[in-house]
Predict the structure.
Amino acid sequence: MARTFVGLLLVAAAVRAAPKVVPPAGPNVVIIGSGSTNAAGFQIEVLRSGVAVMSTVQGPGERATASPKRVQLPAAMVRRLYEDLGVAMPLAALPAVHCMKSASFGTSMTIHWGKEQTPDLNCGAGGNRVMGNLIRDVQKILPLMRK
């Protein structure tokens, strides 16, 4: 009986001591698709309020060429994105997965959060669950922005 009680106390203490991931307040998340020779790139800024603003760009560092599109994303989707990014920090520590791409038509997709940036998400997660969660989040957001 005493052994069981002590075991329960240890389990309760471990659960209480486990760090809870709380995404830091601050900058908005920005998803960037590089585009290619025959396709414009894009930038999607995802605000914590759930508003997402998509701009089309022709090249790195260039201004948007079309009027931005605003979409209200589901709150649960935005919360999951920010939580998954919080778990993934620092983003530079995520594994860089490499894949074959055409020099002219290959694209890259990254998530930027403050000074942090993911590796290219277009090459897959390489078996990394955290990267897989970020890829899933982006794949759920993109169709809503392209409607």
